[in-house]
Design goal:
This is DUF3298 domain-containing protein. It is built from seven helices and 18 strands. The chain is an alpha+beta fold. It has three domains: 105 residues, Beta Barrel (Lipocalin); 144 residues, Heat Shock Protein 90; 114 residues, no CATH class. The strands form four sheets. The protein has an eight-stranded antiparallel beta barrel with strand order 1-2-3-4-5-6-7-8.
Length: 376
């Protein structure tokens, strides 16, 4: 019993040591928020932002034998440099910033930033951010959204909101639905906007170790019906990896409940009722349905519906007749039907998101998903 308890205490102690430290303080006279992750082997990874500018500065370095930290800023993977030296003091850290542009050392002082000290926000959409990452929350609570343009789309007034630093924008629906539905829909849209803002800053952090980053997003509302709201959120990005990339991560909601929908809620190509095993956190347990059932079915359906675009055996075509490209589709609802975008390996990414790959509602109704009541 003693050995087991000792092992548990050791594991707990290691977890505590490895947990990121959230800190607030100053570099010179400038207020900062910092996150430090000190591994049990002494390796340090972290980031911090100046409250005035909000953008991350990446930190990496090593804990020394005397407990002090030597950290470099935005280091490339083959660089070694000491820009900040910190030593522990009263549960926090003190030291100096002496980066390449410093004419003389600048004092640094940091103290633990407990959740009870965090500023409150009147924006309920920030609550998930607060629960997920105190560091992200403390940045975003100081980034109020700015009202953008208003427009009419499919009988609804949309108010766009812009986050000025990241340039991430998303709309809220002002009318055309019951008030309770509007509140739920707009809450989810607001939460999604902050999620995209967090992705922008994560991308910038990734690019800080390389040649910079780029993150541009286009939001297109495709359907605002009495049952469904569906929007495309298409992002082109470079976050310091080998190549730039792009992708669509649409959002489709049930209007009455504001609940996000899965493809199998609307379309089911399998036998019986839609049943896809999910883990406790909601993630799919496996993708056998997509591989064995959905992809072959979509090839047959799209070949029948769009024969001019799917040309098996043509060396110049994109290979839309290959079931593999239909296993993981990006999808959203339109007035005409379900848009289903195939996915390709990098060398053929230009083949993604063809304009023609729509499954008409008349076909979808012949293969309804778990929520046939939502089909038009």
């Amino acid at each position: 019993m003693y050995k087991t308890s000792g092992l548990l205490l050791l594991l707990v102690a290691q977890a505590v040591l490895a947990a990121p430290q959230l800190l607030q303080g100053k570099v010179g006279q400038a207020a900062v928020v910092m996150e430090l992750d000190i591994a049990t082997d002494g390796q340090v990874e972290g980031r911090y932002f100046y409250r005035k500018h909000h953008r991350d500065i990446a930190l990496s370095g090593q804990r020394q034998a005397d407990g002090s930290l030597q950290l470099g800023e935005n280091l490339r993977y083959d660089e070694q440099r000491n820009d900040i030296t910190l030593r522990p003091q009263n549960g926090g850290w003190v030291g100096a910033w002496h980066g390449p542009k410093a004419s003389k050392p600048v004092p640094v002082s940091l103290t633990p930033y407990a959740a009870a000290q965090w500023p409150a926000s009147s924006d309920a959409a920030l609550n998930p951010v607060r629960q997920r990452s105190g560091y992200d929350y403390l940045r975003m609570v100081d980034l109020p959204l700015k009202p953008g343009k208003r427009e009419r789309v499919q009988g609804h007034t949309l108010q766009w909101w812009d986050e000025p630093v990241s340039k991430i924008r998303l709309f809220r629906v002002l009318d055309g639905y019951p008030q309770a539905s509007l509140q739920r829909i707009n809450q989810l849209l607001a939460e999604r906007q902050w999620q995209e803002v967090a992705s922008y800053f994560d991308c910038q952090l990734g690019g800080s170790r390389n040649s910079g980053a780029d993150f541009e997003q286009t939001v297109t509302p495709h359907l605002l019906s009495n049952k469904l709201l569906s929007v495309s959120i298409f992002t082109s990005y470079y976050c310091g990896g080998a190549h730039p990339d792009f992708g669509d991560n649409p959002l489709t909601l049930e209007v009455a409940s504001g609940k996000p929908l899965q493809l199998e809620d609307l379309l089911w190509a399998g036998k019986g009722k839609p049943q896809l095993a999910r883990k406790a956190n909601g993630e799919r347990a496996d993708y056998q349905y997509e591989e064995s059932v959905l992809a072959p079915w979509l090839v047959n359906a799209m070949t029948r519906l769009h024969p001019a675009q799917i040309k098996p055996g043509n060396e110049d075509d994109c290979g839309y007749s290959d079931p593999q490209v239909w296993q993981f589709v990006s999808w959203y609802a339109t007035p005409q039907g379900l848009y289903l975008g195939p996915s390709f390996a990098r060398v053929a990414r230009a083949c993604e998101y063809p304009a023609w790959s729509v499954l008409p509602w008349s076909v979808v109704k012949q293969h309804p998903g778990a929520r046939p009541d939502l089909l038009p």
